[in-house]
């Protein structure tokens, strides 16, 4: 069965409701298989409607908010006596970064929310989940 040899699960998050549901499901899978959950938040560096450059202050604020969000995921796991959670961030295009990290990391499964916060971007260029399903070389569980 697909879940028998799971040791590391990648969970890309953006703090949307589907993202939170994906994380909860990943924790359940990890608890059953004694796996580690790596929670990834990608800080987007591209903007669909603008050529504006992001200031260092804005980047620092995005990082701060991202770290606060990731702390909530860690706290959720700890509240359920699950401590095999690691969090990390990446900076870039979320679709490309998630697929790249899924393929280059030592993961056996990606658990991702079906849609995230970027409705306009998703309508124009497709969702991170769709992109990950197409490009990941490992199983992807899409949660909605």
Automatic annotation (TrEMBL):
Residues 6-144 form the UspA domain. It holds the Pfam family Usp. InterPro entries: Rossmann-like_a/b/a_fold, Universal_stress_UspA, UspA. CDD domains: USP-like (cd00293). SUPFAM superfamilies: Adenine nucleotide alpha hydrolases-like. Belongs to the universal stress protein A family. This is Universal stress family protein. It comes from Aerococcus viridans (strain ATCC 11563 / DSM 20340 / CCUG 4311 / JCM 20461 / NBRC 12219 / NCTC 8251 / M1).
């Amino acid at each position: 069965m697909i879940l028998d040899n799971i040791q590391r699960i990648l969970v890309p998050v953006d703090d949307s409701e589907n993202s939170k549901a994906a994380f909860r499901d990943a924790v359940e899978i990890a608890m059953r298989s004694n796996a580690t959950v790596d929670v990834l938040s990608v800080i987007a560096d591209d903007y669909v409607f603008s050529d504006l450059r992001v200031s260092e202050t804005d980047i620092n604020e995005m990082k701060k908010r991202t770290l606060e969000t990731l702390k909530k995921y860690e706290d959720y796991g700890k509240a359920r006596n699950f401590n095999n959670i690691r969090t990390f961030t990446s900076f870039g295009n979320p679709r490309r970064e998630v697929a790249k990290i899924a393929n280059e990391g030592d993961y056996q499964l990606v658990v991702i929310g079906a849609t995230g916060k970027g409705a306009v971007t998703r309508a124009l260029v497709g969702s991170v989940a769709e992109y990950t399903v197409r490009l990941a070389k490992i199983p992807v569980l899409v949660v909605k």
